[in-house]
Amino acid sequence: MIQIGTYQFDTSDPLVIAAIAAGVGFALILLLLILALRVAGRSARMTAPLAQQMQILGGHVQQLGAGQEQLRGGLQTVSDTQAAAQSQMIQTVESRLNHVQLQMQERLADNSARSARQLAEMQERIGQTLHGSSKQTTTSLTQLQERLAAIDKAQDNITKLSGDVLSLQDILSNKQTRGAFGEIQLRDIVSKALPTDSYVLQHTMSNGKRADCLIHLPNPPGPIVIDSKFPLEAYEALRAAKTDHDLKGAVAQMKVAVRKHIRDISAKYIIEGETADGALMFLPSEAVYAELHANFPELVREGFEARVWIVSPTTCMATLNTMRAILKDARMREQAGAIRKTLRMLHRDVELVVTRVGKLDTHFRQAREDLDGIGTAAERAGKRAAKLDNFDFEELDEAPVSTVVPLTKPDGKV
Known about the structure:
two-stranded antiparallel ribbon; five-stranded mixed sheet
């Protein structure tokens, strides 16, 4: 129970409880209003310096905006300057690149022209050499045909001469005339079969002996001698023999004379280091040659053993033609050596061209690398200029504490 004056109130009564609660709530509200008024007064007292600080801060913000405008103008100027410098640099680089490219093209054109001229000159020299060799070969074949025709004609003449037995006997009756006849016949055959610079008539050897004909063959076999001084007295005696006794005597005389002549040729005209290891014994008559091979084969074998080969006018012509082929082959080898020398020179020139082309390729590769480096640098400079042009201040890191404008109180204290 609660007694207020003359009134008593039951605490269990809901009305009383509600009245008490309302009174308590009113008291709390009144208390809160008093506290709010006190706080408002205190806030008003503290708001005055804060307003001053806000005014100062607004001024600083205006200054910062002006500085930002100035910075933006400066950045625009820097961007324009960078763009102009980049454009000028690109123009300068393009001009230099064009100049370098022009110089390289001129050098390449000069080198190509020089190489073309050198190759054309080499081809012309090789063509001239081959043409000269072909012409010389054609001339040699023509001369060979002419000489073969002359040989055929000479063979006809020899046949006619061999038929004139009486005239031949008159000629062979005298030893000096017989020797001169053999030499003349040998000279006629050799002059028709070989070039004039490939043989020497009546050549004196190092041992003082005089050879009827010395043919200059290449080594091997080397120079070879032809002797035409065959003793025909034994053959004449053989042909003139009527009885068996005379025939035996003529056969013995024939063997002795031929053997002696073979030994003399081997001793006189086979000189080691000066001539070939053989010599030719020329018989001016086909009949004598046939007689030796038909009835005296042992003499032919002895000649082979002594390296003295017996030849008649016909076989001598065939032998000389073989020698002519050897001489021709040697001269062709000399020409082939000259061609190989020219080809070696051509190969060396081609190697020089390949080396210079390699150096030129190195220069081109270096130029390409320089161009790639310049392009990369220009691209990097363009990106940096674009970054400056699109610069955003909000992306900057927080400024250091020392650059922040401090807030000051009215009394000047921080």
